Amino acid sequence: MNWWRGNRWWLVRILRLPLDVFVFATIAFFLIRLLPGDPVVVSLASRNEPVTPESVAALEAQMGLDGSIWSQLLRFWGGMFQGDFGASLVSGAPVTQEVFSRLPSTVELILLGLGAAFVATIVLGFLYTRFSNRALRKSIQVYSSFATTVPVFVIAVFALLLLYVKLGWLPAPLGRVSSGVLPVVTGFPLLDEAITGNWRMLGETLVRYIMPVLAMMLAYTPNLLTQYLGGLDREIAQTTTRFQVASGAKRGWIFFSVFRRSLSSVVVVFGLFFGSLIGGAVTIENLFGFGGIGQLGVRSVESIDFPTLQGFLIIVVAFCLIAMLVVDLVNMWLDPRRRPGVAAEGN
Amino acid sequence: MAESFELVLSGVRKDYGRGSTALTAVQPLDLRVTEESELGIIGESGSGKSTLSRMIVGLEHPTSGEIVFDGRSVKEWLSTRRSRLEFRQQVQYVAQDTTSFDPRKTLGEAVAVPLRFLRGITDRDEIRDRLDAIAEELALDPAMYERLPHQVSGGQRQRFALARSLVVEPRLLLCDEVVSALDVSVQGTVLNLIKGFVQRHRMGLMFVAHGLPAVTFISRELLVMKRGEVVESGPVRDLVESPQHPYTRELMNAYDLDDGRKELS
Amino acid sequence: MSTATRPDEAIAVRDFSISYRVDGELVPAVSDVTFSLSRSERLAVVGESGSGKTTLATAIAGLLPHGVAHVEYADARIAGRDVDLRVGHRVIPISQLGVSMIFQDAMTSLDPVASIGHQFRTVLASGERRSRRDVRGEAAHWIDRVGIPRPERVLGLRPYELSGGMRQRVMIALAMCSKPAVLIADEPTSALDVAVSQRIMSLILELTAELGTAVIAITHDIDLAQRYLDRTLVLHQGIVQDFCATDGLSAPERSAYTRALVKCVPRLRDFDRTSLPTLAATMRGTGMGGA
């Protein structure tokens, strides 16, 4: 019983996730069907197919748009529980397969970019606190003020122009490898290359990741840094820090305490960021010729691949919800007072 | 001069929580306050004195029992917008927290707000006159009305908070820990002003605090609370000179000190 | 380290002055303060808000914010050794050896996220390398010393899991476990009821007496000084009005300000009066042609 009470905070959050996804999927279902226009007719027209009652009925059935809205909903739910979101109108393959075969590559890119931004934030925050050099601190603050002003693709283009076009240090933006097909085991390119022992490809991918990851790091660090610097300034002035200094705590521990207390505001932004990161990743993928869900999304919109769009939307959102859940859990782990059921004052 | 009124509490009780964490903040009590009252309520934290004053002004509702002001229950007073405004004009509550001022508005604007909303006075000149009058009564320099809250000292801010409450001419003033955060050397000034004002305008006063000397000066009657219960009540002189309840005696002893004599060495 | 020539001296400062840089100008907060305390003495630094008492205490503890304040002095010694009390330039100030400080609110003083045991470790484990068990045992001893039952259990708890009273005691224990020469208490009882104040003050006095730590209590409450502290330093606008035994605060030799301050403390027997003495009125009265 006690174990339940002590661990309730994260168990409940995890159990709630499928429910959140289910609710969102249902909302998405209705939202998509509220869009103006008739997707069937438009889809047929865009593919230059004749609009006849038969072709309309056939396509309707394929898209899952036949029958009353409630029977559609029931079929949708049924399909969802079985993991079946229908088949792509373009390739004929199941939507889940189309999405999941591409998603890991995008996630790998995002994690690397975000990871780099996070490390940069921590390092800059440390320098900001450890050294009192006014020029250094000021320049770190100025850098953080660029938050949300420079879009990631602009930086990426600049990086390309400088490092590839002008200096020729880095290879052309033509995909993750120069030749050959990426091995597929888990779906994560770097991981798969390592697992299959394909060292040439691994090296090439790592090199080709330099520019995009650098661009993401430069673009996303200011956002995280603004939060972190704000947190640091606040926590350093807090009575807590003054008491630690006054009671003679070891300096290393004081720094650690200040960093830990300031970190939660960064972690929160992390979670909020994830959604826009996927958008940024799509642009990066396009720019550097990487395969990923970005490609899939563009293709589905161009050909109005209804089932794929629907599945794509739901799966990506589910993914973001998972990311936010992880962020929440990390935050609650970092600071026990944020756990539900814990009173702020002593109980 | 305020009209007479009667505030009656019958069997008022306040519980919080449920089950194993249930807590009775205020045990059933009866009380009668009029415009002649200068009632002090003393108790330590957790005694229920603040809960009691919040219930009287309607910020909290009793779990059982009734609070009746001028023949109508507080719940009734708060039920319609018009009667609510009237109630708030007649019963004013000043607390210790002087961060209740909007930091972007001047003190003059802050003090004028209740005049506009509770008294419906919008004429600029009349507002100015009333603001000046209350400033004089509370020994405040009217020039400070132009200042922002953070530009004046804590003691002055507390007096402006009082001005804001008193400018609408309430019949009953409830002060909750208004001098506790002030420098001891400034407390005398504020207490003198409150006492003078209340007597001149024949207002009822309920003064809640945990610091005994302030309360005994400003009150004629005293209510001693401990853990939600009223352990003793009566005229101030009686309670100070011959306290009956052991808790009251303990409190009085803790404060009774000759000038310059130490208690512990 | 040079040998202390005055083994019993806890702290001594001479002509200690602190100014703040405001809009390019130096505004004095504390001017030429001189006092000294032996290890068994307790001092109250008394003054109104803005008198400079908090600035003085903060400076002695080495906590003045960097870049804004300017400190000068002729002498400054802690535990008989000369110390550097000038404002450091670090973002996080360096602890002043031999001085500990406790604050008004224990909840904001303790690290909200770390366990009590960990917080003790950050103080006790500095210096020579010690085993975890040693440190844990000493932490438990301190928790017990301040009157908290089941110390072993408390070590694993976090501040929000303790009651207010326990948090206060833990804060005192943490401040004292480095065995400082001077303990500064910033408004130790302002937020407390009279009964709790008594308990906390007697705990502080007991512990400091046992360990030979001088006490400096910053307060605006003369009553606190008169009950618990044997010497008093009265500050007004940064200037020392009096530095004397608390017993003699009402003596005629005291400055007009000090005597007025003493007169203005609300007393229980004031219940009979029609109005309380105020600082301004009292000073006007005594200013006119002497007592």
Describe the structure in your own words.
The complex is a heterotrimer of chains A (347), B (265) and C (291). Chain A contains 13 helices and no strands. Chain A is mostly helical and 347 residues long. In chain A, helix 7 packs across helix 9 (199-237), helix 8 (189-195) packs across helix 9 and helix 9 crosses helix 11. The model of chain A is unreliable at 343-347 (pLDDT under 50). By secondary structure, chain B is α/β, with parallel strands linked by helices. Chain B has a single domain (6-255), classed as 3-Layer(aba) Sandwich (Rossmann fold). Chain B contains 10 helices and 10 strands. Chain B has helices spanning 49-56, 74-77, 81-90, 107-118, 124-137, 154-166, 184-200, 212-218, 236-241, 246-255, and strands at residues 6-16, 23-34, 38-43, 64-69, 72-73, 91-95, 172-176, 204-209, 221-226, 229-235. In chain B, the strands form 2 sheets. In chain B, strands 6-7-8-3-9-10 form a 6-stranded mixed β-sheet, with helices on both faces. Chain B has a 4-stranded antiparallel β-sheet with strand order 2-1-4-5. In chain B, strand 4 and strand 5 form a beta hairpin. In chain B, helix 6 (154-166) runs parallel beside helix 7. The longest helix of chain B has 17 residues, at 184-200. Chain B starts with 5 loop residues before the first strand and ends in a 10-residue tail after the last helix. Residues 259-265 of chain B have low confidence and may be disordered. In chain C, 33% of the residues lie in helices and 24% in strands. Chain C has a domain at 261-291. In chain C, helix 3 packs across helix 4 (132-145) and helix 6 runs parallel beside helix 7 (194-211). Chain C has a 6-stranded mixed β-sheet with strand order 7-8-9-3-10-11, with helices on both faces. In chain C, strands 1, 2, 4, 5 and 6 form a 5-stranded antiparallel β-sheet that branches. Residues 287-291 of chain C have low confidence and may be disordered. Chain C is α/β, with parallel strands linked by helices. The radius of gyration of chain C is 20 Å and the shape is globular. Chains in contact: A-C, B-C.
